[in-house]
Amino acid sequence: MVRMTAIMICAVLAGCQAVPGEGPLTADIKKDAGQSPTQIGRIDAAVFDIVNVDNRTAKLVSDYVATALNRRFGFGGGAGRAVIGVGDQLKISIFEAGADGLFSTTESKQTSLDVVVQQDGTAAIPYVGSIRFAGKTLEEARQEILSSLRSRAVEPDVIVSSVNTASRKVTVSGAVGSSAQVPLGLVGEKITDVIAKAGGPSGQPYETYVTLVRGKKTGTALLSSVIDNPSENIYVQPGDQIFVARDPRTFTLLGAVRANARINFGASDLNLLEAVALGGGGNDAAVDAKGYFLFRYEEADIVMSLLGRQRFNELLSKGMKPDRLGRYPIVYSFDMTHPDSLLVGQTFPVKNRDVIYASRHTSVDLRKFLALIGAPIGIASQGAGVAYNLERISD
């Protein structure tokens, strides 16, 4: 019996690749990590790397997810300097102390003028001429008009107010109440302010994405993240484009789990343990507890922070390619045999379109092989047990 079992094990070790399986084994994934297509043996193979998740990794990824817009645009605080621009409509009120001045009569000691800033950035003021308004604040424009009137009017004073800020508009479109060009106030407005002016989002914040386009930069964040993290609710600038999209977040669970499926988040956030639990958890009779993996195209900043610039450049030289959004393939590895994995798994965030894969244990392939060749049940069980113990010893 022992001799036959040994023969069976040797046969499996020599030819287990012929056994059907539900995806790669843990060893296969780790073997291909960091290898070039030539080393893997397929010219079209994707180049990726593995990151073993610990407390530091989980915190780094979690912190980045919560501050995507802040990091992308490099700021999150000030409203900036609100200035007058071309096309803005201004109301200029001029007061004089005397009754017979340039702008006053016996009935009124003030005159109000409505002006529109022209393409050259100027507007004409009676008895003053052309004044340059573009690029100035309201106070700066007031001081310039006042300075020009002091030698002409009787103890003049001036008030400049904004009527229509045509140059200070943000375009908001997509899954909002009403797509519109939203005028910005002079005090500065944030992302949630302008979305509210466009009628608010049509979906729940946890399934709504906000994309901000500014010049050549583009950043996307979950609306619930913008709401929960004040640093993400950044000030918008004139000319910004904001696109709001409703996209229920999903992840895919595959491998040695109770149910292979594409699953909706159904919540504002989701961690790794919750995601696995939504699919019914791992299959105790098949799963390799050391082989839980999360496949993701990750932001370049995170990849460099995790791997280091030298390793990142090495992978690029081997052929690692970004997706259309400039993100790079990374596989996060979780060893569930360690007690602290239950803590780390709670802090590691799952993102939209992630693929979570639970590798099967090597003993599963042995049982399949022995069953295929018609080995007696007792020998099959004994052989699987021996293979399982051999693996534990090798680890």
UniProtKB/TrEMBL annotation:
Keyword Thylakoid tagged: no
Keywords of this entry: Signal
Source species of the chain: Neorhizobium phenanthreniclasticum
Protein name: Polysaccharide biosynthesis/export family protein
Pfam families: Poly_export
Top-level taxon of the source organism: Bacteria
Polysaccharide export protein N-terminal domain residues: 83-161
InterPro entries per UniProt: Poly_export, Poly_export_N
